[in-house]
């Protein structure tokens, strides 16, 4: 049976909305109650000890500490991390050594993959499934995030968000958007890594929305490359899993309980080729969306009228990427724009 989910109501035309709900979440293998308690205690212990470890660690080593904490946190949540770096060319290997080579390459990518060198600004963009995305992305390399404003007020995770210098965004306040873009641009210009979820809201992982172009303006203003990341969750059979989806009327407790009970989930992070910022944020958003969607592109509404098939739920994309959605005005930053053009010209000559 297929359930038709009506589009969510938006406060304004730009505000992203997701019609994904409980019908999108499909059960997977689960562990017993004792295992759930052990996982919950492990996660609580990590979150409570991290602030102390952060303050006790010299600034030069905090990045690696954050990375290790995020990886251990994923394991405590019952998730395995797999990183695929498509930016690095691979050499063909004989068939008899293919399995060993694949395992070795996966381990090497997990250990060595980074979004950018320390001190190099980069805008990381990916689809948004749930709160566990933040942990998974930080397990590759620590970075700042643009996240929902009420995350700061969540128990335990709120303190962690403040330590990670989360940039809070209130989707209902359209007028505040230029200020958010300016904060991102300032971080990028200072050589920091910042992750954004351009869909603007969470989807179940099988269905997804369009990448809104507004936040990409920060990369254009600063001449910063954009790193597209394909993020998905797989069950132990290698099938895409929707359990981590934070959708509909989910509370944090509901979502966390569902993740803690699950068995055999792998979070896969694929680093695609960086995108040159250019001068058109809509074009940049389209390029990054194509990179992030990969082979899953046919599930998007553009190829199936207005509907997206998400196994048991059929959902409607409220704003396809080519739809006439008002583009929020961005602040005028003439000095920064001139510097960005200089950086772009320099990189262009260097590439030539």
TrEMBL record:
Keyword vocabulary terms for this entry: Acyltransferase, Lipid biosynthesis, Lipid metabolism, Transferase
Supply the Pfam families for this chain. Acyltransferase
Q: Which GO terms describe its biological process?
A: phosphatidic acid biosynthetic process
Q: Where is the Phospholipid/glycerol acyltransferase domain?
A: 122-234
UniProt cross-references to InterPro entries, sorted A to Z: Plipid/glycerol_acylTrfase (IPR002123)
Q: Which GO molecular-function terms appear in the entry?
A: 1-acylglycerol-3-phosphate O-acyltransferase activity
Q: In which pathway does it act?
A: Lipid metabolism
Q: What is this protein called?
A: Lyso-ornithine lipid acyltransferase
UniProt lineage: Bacteria, Bacillati, Actinomycetota, Actinomycetes, Mycobacteriales
